[in-house]
Design goal:
It is built from ten helices and 17 strands. Strands 1, 2, 4, 5, 6, 7, 8 and 9 form an eight-stranded mixed beta sheet that branches. A seven-stranded mixed beta sheet has the order 11-16-17-13-14-15-12. It has a two-stranded parallel ribbon with strand order 3-10. Strand 16 and strand 17 form a beta hairpin. The model has no long low-confidence stretch (mean pLDDT 91).
């Protein structure tokens, strides 16, 4: 049994010992945690691995729409220099499964397995919450994983919504009236961030135009986060990922990064944020965004509403 250094021992060290596939069975999980893990592998520059996530308690209480959309966004993709493939499946038949298993395979053969209290969520791995984990038999764990997997469905399956219950993420966000008015009426905290520089201009190679330089993806973008706002605790720091639902119904996985926590980005691909804003502005992929483009649209800022520590609402409507 162990309680210390759980992320390194369970999620990262085995890949240095030859593990090239990570199977995760967790009662509860979030796309924020999956995104954080993938990005962490990228930053550690380890040999590419495959990750299969299986979420066990879905038959008991369903999933929120943003969590489901977040997993669909991550599913079935390769992430350069880190993950050859990430898949996510939901247990869709009773009984629900509340077990937590982390199983490492080397070329298809079970080599290490862990079980314990740590669910596949950021609070269990990158906060101060205490968890207890222990080694278990890799063969038995792998056998159990496969049996549970037989009662699951991929998150992007065309009929997935016939097999699981999707529920509102938050009663406010799913109100029938204008969610922005409702959020303000409920007294939920909000922050307005400018898409312009401190001088009121558009950044030529920063902000929405971060990628407008040689050798970069021209869609790469970030939202500038002033230091005085970063210090308030409104947004999670320490590279934690958070989910944002936008006023037009999209789901983005974001984090605060760069020196002095000055930028909000889509960490798995900084181009995702730029693609989103260019689409809202009616611009082509990779286009240079001008101040006039924002003025023509009707806004030069965005407003974030904090629902909880991992869920936000972003308003860019006019």
């Amino acid at each position: 049994m162990f309680t210390n250094n759980i992320p390194q021992r369970i999620l990262f060290a085995p890949s240095l010992q030859g593990g090239n596939t990570l199977l995760i069975l967790s009662g509860y999980a979030t796309p924020n945690m999956a995104s954080w893990l993938i990005k962490s592998f990228q930053e550690q520059d380890v040999s590419p691995i495959n990750i299969s996530l299986l979420i066990g308690m879905v038959p008991y209480n369903g999933l929120s729409v943003p969590i489901h959309e977040g997993f669909k966004e991550l599913h079935g993709k390769a992430y350069p220099n880190a993950v050859e493939n990430f898949t996510c499946s939901y247990v869709c038949e009773n009984p629900p499964v509340h077990a937590n298993l982390y199983i490492w395979l080397q070329d298809g053969t079970p080599m290490l397995a862990y079980t314990g209290s740590a669910e596949f969520v950021q609070n269990a791995f990158i906060s101060s919450r205490k968890e207890v984990m222990e080694y278990c038999d890799p063969e038995e764990a792998y056998d159990f994983f496969e049996k549970v997997e037989a009662s699951s469905i991929y998150c992007n399956h065309s009929e997935v919504e016939d097999h699981i219950v999707l529920r509102p993420t938050h009663q406010i966000l799913d109100a029938e009236n204008n969610p922005i008015t409702t959020l303000a009426g409920e007294g939920i905290g909000s922050i307005k961030l400018s898409l312009l520089t401190n001088k009121g201009d558009i950044g030529e190679k920063s902000g929405l135009n971060w990628g407008q330089r040689k050798g970069r993806n021209r869609n790469q973008s970030y939202i500038h986060l002033p230091s005085q706002i970063a210090r308030t605790g409104f947004f999670p720091l320490n590279k934690q990922h958070f989910t944002v639902v936008t006023d037009d119904g999209h789901t983005l996985l974001l984090r605060v990064e760069q020196q002095n926590n000055k930028a909000i980005t889509t960490p798995l691909s900084n181009a995702q944020l730029g693609e989103y804003f260019r689409n809202r502005l009616g611009l082509g992929n990779g286009s240079f965004v001008t101040k006039q483009d924002l003025l023509n649209y009707g806004r030069t800022d965005v407003t974030f509403y904090k629902i909880d520590d991992e869920q936000y609402f972003m308003d860019f409507h006019v």
